[in-house]
Structures are given as structure tokens and as C-alpha cells.
Amino acid sequence: MNIPAKIIRVFKKLLLQNIGYFDGEMYSFTNKNSVIKLQAAPIGFSPRIMIIANTVGEADVQSFPIEDRAQVKKVIKNERRLDPLSHSILLDTVNGATYCQSWRFSNLPPSVWFSIPEVLLITHRDNELVVFNKQDRTHFTLASPKGYFSVRSNQFIRTVDDFLAAKGIAKSQVTLSECTNIAERLITGIQNLAFDKWTSFFVKPPSNELIKMTRKAFLPSVLIVFGYLSVTSLGLLGQQYYLQSKISGISGKVDTAIAEQQVVDNQIKTYQQLNVLVNENVKSHERFLVILSELMDDVTLTNVRIQDGRYVLRGRAFKATDLLSKLVAHKSISDAKFDFPTRRSREEDIFVISFVFKEV
């Protein structure tokens, strides 16, 4: 076994010792022969993380008729300040309404730092419906954009179809999962729980308990929880950084290739236009070709056309006024002028100049 695996195993063991499960009675987690199970909590058990069963406490889903999630976060924060026992998370914004779900737990042991609803840990992805048996009852737990829902089987809801019909959700919209070890699934959910949800379910302890915990277990417990999260996340962060670096490198090459292709395309376009111009009648345009060779060494032409006897040139030059001055001063050219105001782009002037040749 390599060192990272050993570290994760140690953290996992320490983490299990600090997690409890409450459904009216207290349970602790054990790991025997790599199988995680729930057992009646021993006397004096003081978990830092408490998983609350769906049958305990109060849950409520609210919708706000606004899409500004920042404003909804302010409402949630204010509600938490008014009621410290309330915990809320922001859900999705659907059809112009933003949803949030709140839970309220009371009478928790003073040792608890985080009280996390069971439903958040059983479902591991959006639109997942998990079916499991507990205490000889079938439980249906769903994660949807509009909330987390859990129901025990009863005389009205006996099957998955009954549960989905009661929620008004088509079976094709959910991913069905069956769970045979609820304890294992809860611990996996703890490992995968997002940081913002940890902060949402933090329980502020009474001041006297806070002093005791700080003296006895604050630093070790914080190291256990956040150290474990750091170790398990390190590999993912490394992979993310590697992929982002690869994407950045590829993006830079793509941008360079696109820029070079645009230059080539403009040169080909100019060549084709000049080629057509020359092939139409070489003799009639020979004076223009002379002007082109004499005055336009530092000029990039992107378009050349003849309109009512005037040569209309579109292109780029470091200083378009210098080019116009040369054309005005040339003995073979008359009425040279800007057809449109020039504009500056990437240290070059973009111009449209036209002129006519004097009659010989």
C-alpha cells in the first residue's frame, strides 16, 4: 500500500469516530472488514458531525420570483441570523424563480459542529432517485433542481412510480439507484459534500461549550476533517490543474493558428483581386501597377476595385496620410482622397483611398 492510501485510511478511521447518525436515537459508525455499518452509539459518544435522518426535524422548500441569486443568498443569510437553528442551501433557478431549501434541527448534543440532513448525503448527483430499505420500510430519496425530497413507503406510496407521480416527475427525468448499504452511502456522501454545504450546516455552539471544545478537541478535530478533505481532494486538484494547463496551451496554439490563417486569407484575397484586375486588361492598368510598385512597399492592400473610372483602394498602413500625400504629389494621379475616415487598429491605419489617373 502506498503512502497516500495509508494516510487516507488513517483519516477515514479518525473521521468515522467523529460522525454520528440520529433518527430519534443515536448511532455511530464502525468499519469492520472494510464494511461500514451503523451501531447503537456507546455511552459518552460525542460526535462533531451529526447526520440527521429525514424523519427528524423540519424541512421546507421556498421559491423566490427573482433570478438574482446574490439577492436570495442575502435573504438566506438574514434568516440564519434570525434563527441560528435554521440551515439553508441555494438550489437551481428555474423559469425565472430561484429555489432554496431549509432545515431546522433542535435539541442536538452540544458537541455537534455540523448537522447535515441525510437526504443530501444519500443522493450523489442531480436528478438521482435512491431507493433503500431501513427498518423494514422502503425509502425514496430524490435530488431535483427544485429540492431534496424523501418519503417512507406508506399506503399511498409503495413503488417508485407512486413516488414520482406524487411529485409530478416523469420517470425518464431521473436516474434510479438502489442502495444496499445506507451507512456506506452516507460516508461516501460526507466525503463528496461540497465546501459551501459544510458552511451552511455549521452549528454555532454555546459560548461555554465552545471554550471547552477549544481546550479539548478543536485543533485535532479540525485537522481530521479538513485534513481528510484536503488529502482526498489533492489528486482531483492536480488533475484539474494539469487539464487546465493543457487546455491553455492548446488555446494559445489555436489562437496563433487562427491569426496566421487570417493573414494568409487576406493575402490570398488581395492576390486574387489583383490577378483579376490584371488579367482583365493588362495594358489599361499598367500605370496602376507602376504606382503599386513605386508607392506601396509598406502598404497592405485588402481590396482593390474600379468604380466609375476611380481606383478604390482599401488596406492598412502605418500612416495613411503619408500614403495619401504621395498619391496627391504623383504626376499621373489626380483627385486622390480618403473616401472614409481612417481608424487606428494594432498600430496601423485602416484606410479607403480613391483616385483617378490623368488623361495622357
Sum up the structure in keywords.
five-stranded mixed beta sheet, alpha+beta, 10 helices, Gyrase A, domain 2, five-stranded antiparallel beta sheet
Overall description:
The protein is 42% helix and 31% strand. Helix 1 (3-16) packs across helix 8. It has helices spanning 3-16, 69-82, 118-122, 160-167, 182-192, 195-200, 207-216, 218-280, 286-295, 320-329; strands spanning 19-22, 26-32, 35-40, 49-52, 58-64, 86-94, 97-104, 114-117, 128-134, 137-144, 147-152, 175-179, 299-307, 310-317, 333-338, 343-345, 348-357. By secondary structure, it is an alpha+beta fold. The model has no long low-confidence stretch (mean pLDDT 80). It is elongated, with a radius of gyration of 36 Å. It contains ten helices and 17 strands. The protein starts with a helix and ends with a strand. The protein folds into two domains: 3-240, no CATH class; 281-357, General secretion pathway protein M, EpsM (Gyrase A, domain 2, 2-Layer Sandwich), CATH 3.30.1360.100. The strands form four sheets. A five-stranded mixed sheet has the order 3-2-1-4-8.
